[in-house]
Amino acid sequence: MSAARIGFLLALLIQVAVVAAGEPEFANVFVPNADGFKSIRIPAVVASKSGMLLAFAEGRAANADQASNKIVQKRSSDGGKTWGRLAILADDGLNSLNNPCVVVERGTGRLLLMYQSYPAGLTERSRDLHGGYVGNQVVRAWLITSDDDGATWSRPREITTQVKRPSATTVTSGPGIGIQLRHGKHAGRILFPFNDGPFGLWNIYAAYSDDGGKTWAMGEDAPGNLIDDGKGGKISTVNEAQFVELGDGSIRFNVRRWGGKPLRKTCVSADGGATWSKIQDVPEQADPSCMGSIFQYTDPADGSRSRILYSGPQSTRRENGAVFLSYDAGKTWPVKRVLSSGGFAYSCLTALPDGVIGCLYEAQGTGKILFARFTLDWLTSGKDHLEKRPK
User: Residue 262, preceding bond cis, omega within 30 degrees?
Assistant: First the structure.
């Protein structure tokens, strides 16, 4: 057999092996400059009731957290393999729009997207930010909705007084996704994870609605968030937050580390987000201080094992992005696999109707936002298989 023929057969075998192993697929979603902004950051992704994938981010005039940001969107009708054109969903001129956080209401399929606005020229570190709800130096919270898979969106509705405490100078939804409870006496409740400050003294809590998003209420702050900063003052251990429903209807926070050990932080609510257990470390999950994602992949109520996913950088820097899997409601994380060994910053997990897992994440530092598609078989190296499609 000729060397050329042998080479061809080897190449073919390698291709077959890759397909059989179900290696992740990657697609560009938001690319700065090419998509009209100098910087595009803070990804959020969700699958609509019909299976449309929607990706959200902040389109920024500069690589800064508050840079006249707009809330932007792209959609995919083929499971994240290709993405449509960028659409601007919210624009407030020189004011900066931040922290897109989205949820799908199960009954109607309505998409609810929260974000906040910062006054032009001010940042979350600014001493000129005021608490309360009145004036031009206040961070405000907004909600927009879509009833057609993100093709069109409502006008922004201000909900600041319902989700922000009067003493807070900053307030952040997520970023990432919210949840809607399926179990327990609060089934149907829509919840968004929040943190507020002043800067460096963050609290985490839930804002929730029992009427489909018409009105909102706030739960209590999770206890145990403040520690000594070593300089005679205090510093918070927590910052940007996500949470997931557990099989009994309770809720687990998974939160970015701000102070304390370089580990993710967690606590649990047994009363629909009204109160929380004391904040603790997640020993298996390193955190260089970066937003991460937690997501309920399968629910025992659907005839599957309980499976909860987490994604985030596993390094002292924002790199080596890994996906974890827990079978015991996030108490332990026995499965871990690296999705991207390079730059990996903010991320957001989702699942497609066919069971494919999706991860929208900041790659190459924050040079672009990619969407990765992979399977449970790949994540577990063939040791776990999906019983049925998740709902």
Answer: no
Residue 349: its pLDDT value, please? Answer: 98
Q: Got the DSSP string for 108-166?
A: T--EEEEEEEE-TT--TT-TT---SS-SSS--EEEEEEESSTTSS-PPPEE-HHHHS-T
Asked if residue 387 is part of any domain, the answer here is no
Looking at the structure of the chain, the number of domains it has is: 1
> Could you tell me the pTM of the whole model?
0.93
CA-to-CA distance for 195 and 240, rounded, in angstroms? 6
| Tens-digit pLDDT profile for residues 20-52 | 358 999 999 999 999 999 999 999 999 999 999
Do 372 and 359 touch, CB atoms closer than 8 A?
yes
pLDDT in tens, 42-82: 999 999 999 999 999 999 999 999 999 999 999 999 999 99
Domain that holds residue 91: 3-379
Q: What are 118's strand-pairing partners?
A: 96
Question: Is residue 244 in a domain?
Answer: yes
d(CA 65, CA 25): 29
261-287 in b/e burial notation, b at 16+ Cβ within 10 A? eebbbbbbbeebbebbbebebbeebbb
In the three-class reduction of DSSP (H, G, I as helix; E, B as strand; rest coil), residue 257 is classed as strand
With cut-offs at 50, 70 and 90, classify the pLDDT of residue 313. very high
The residue type at 262: P
Q: How far apart are CA 59 and CA 166, in angstroms?
A: 29
DSSP category for residue 168: -
Strands 96-104, 176-177: pairing kind? parallel
For residue 262, the number of C-alpha atoms closer than 13 Å in the C-beta half-sphere is 12
297 touches 309 (CB < 8 A): yes
Residue 158 included in any domain: yes
Rounded distance between C-alpha atoms, residue 75 and residue 150, angstroms: 8
Do 309 and 285 contact (CB within 8 A), yes or no? no
Which amino acid belongs to residue 173?
A: S
